[in-house]
Amino acid sequence: MSDAASAIAIEDLRFRWQPTRDWVLDIPRLAIARGESVFLAGPSGSGKTSLLSLITGIAQPTEGCVRILDTRIDHLRGAARDRFRADHFGIVFQLFNLLPYLSVLENVLLSCEFSAARAQRAARRSGTPAGEAVRLLGRLGLTDPQLHRRPATELSVGQQQRVAAARALIGSPPVIVADEPTSALDADLRTEFVTLLLQEVVEAGSALLFVSHDRQLAAAFDREVDLRRFAPAPTPP
Question: Is the pLDDT of residue 109 over 80?
């Protein structure tokens, strides 16, 4: 796969949090195509959170490079990296990170507040960013307009998760990263949520990197990547 066809392209990546600490990741090459859905697996401590931090530009590689949509994100300075993340990434956090003082609709629209590019893409799809937020909430099973006006934290866990997904999806960001988004849900809700998320991602043409300990979900994705294959060699004593 050429880098031009990749949403995410990693080469010769090695990473550790401190110079005196052990290596966390050693990835010669990893590419995720535009429009591809990838299930990222690995036990606790295998580097899943570290890899997401590197892909989204929150952390910088110790060695090697990370390209997102042909841009070396590890070469961008702090403010430019933040703008790039806001424009090109949709992130579903494990604990949702919804703001309790905002309504459901306002939480979804936050992504457009931080990115004019996403606001424009949302408006092209549904007339206005608010119209696109309502569409996404409806696709994710939250159709009641009265619910849209309620504080997000008054919703059930399953409903909050869908709000977080709508916030990540609005404005059709080219890369969606979901970090253990189903960990608080029962089996039926997990399966339903993944189905809805994948449907929306396919329509938007976004790449999806989905992190989970639940290997039963992996079959729904285009392929699975197990981080254990990138475990660094032990440091000699």
Answer: yes
- To which residue do tokens 């990170």 refer? 97
In a domain, 71, yes or no: yes
Per DSSP bridges, beta strands 71-72 and 25-33 are unpaired
For the cut 60, the answer to whether the pLDDT of residue 103 exceeds it is: yes
CA distance linking residue 99 with residue 159, whole number of Å: 14
Q: Six-digit token pair at 139?
A: 């696709």
CATH number of the domain within which 113 lies: 3.40.50.300
Q: How many CA atoms lie within 13 A of 32 on its CB side?
A: 28
Predicted confidence at residue 106, as pLDDT, reads 98
Residue 187 lies in a domain: yes
Contact 137, 148 (CB under 8 A): yes
| Strand pairing report for 25-33 and 175-179 | unpaired
92 within domain boundaries: yes
CA–CA separation, 97 vs 145, rounded Å?
A: 22
The helix/strand/coil state of 6 is strand
Total domains in the chain come to 1
Residue 17 to residues 21, 66, 85, 234, Cα–Cα distance (Å): 7, 16, 21, 16
Query: What's the domain range around 198?
Result: 3-225
**Which of 63, 85, 77, 50 is CA-nearest to residue 19?**
63
232 within some domain: no
Mean per-residue pLDDT for 174-181?
A: 93
